[in-house]
Request: fold
Amino acid sequence: MIHFENIGLRYGTGPEVLQDISFNLNKGSFHFLTGKSGAGKTSLMNLLYMGRRPTRGRLTMFNKLIHEQSRNDLIKLRRYVGVVFQDFRLLDHLSAFDNVALPLRIIGRPEQEIKQQVTELLAWVGLGDYLKSTPPTLSGGQKQRIAIARAVINRPRLLLADEPTGNLDDQIGMRLMYLFDELNRMGTTIVVATHNLNMVHELGHPQLHLSDGTLHYIPGTNGRG
Reply:
């Protein structure tokens, strides 16, 4: 579904932050993206989100060569991708319910269907009593859970999560990772960037490990990937 071939990325005239990156993401796979701060994880996630084109190499997403796509084409391709950003990117003037409902409204789902799906998902992530609350009134962990619910509400083909459990306690964090696991079993391809190696080892999915801009593949221990 996704193919990186000798990808390089630099910002401006600076040195390459990603060098000769090559790997495949098969449909229905689950990978952790690991590495120290500054290793290039956010840059790689940006390429996967199609927020930036590679400086060199061939990147294929959903059977489309990215360097051949227009800006409008990339916008359409991004509809296949759900993203949990580190800074949440919630709309402060909207309620928790309306933030999560936004992707469904954009694609024209009926309001009755939206009400059922959003209410059920917010209850599952422990925010059933906060449907009408706006982000400024919520804690960092609560906002994190809203961001995750918004990213998965329309069951994207690819889910990217950048440190999704960073502001959560271990119990809630693992509960959300099991939600990702369930989405993966239903066919969503998932990449989770994380520093939490305990979680990585417990779930046992393979790792795409970045070190100084180069990629190393570490097989999983759960027989999936």
Q: What stands out?
A: The CA atoms of residues 19 and 214 lie 6 Å apart. The longest strand covers residues 16-25. The beta strands are 2-10, 16-25, 30-34, 56-61, 64-65, 81-84, 158-162, 189-193, 207-211, 214-218. The longest helix spans residues 170-185.
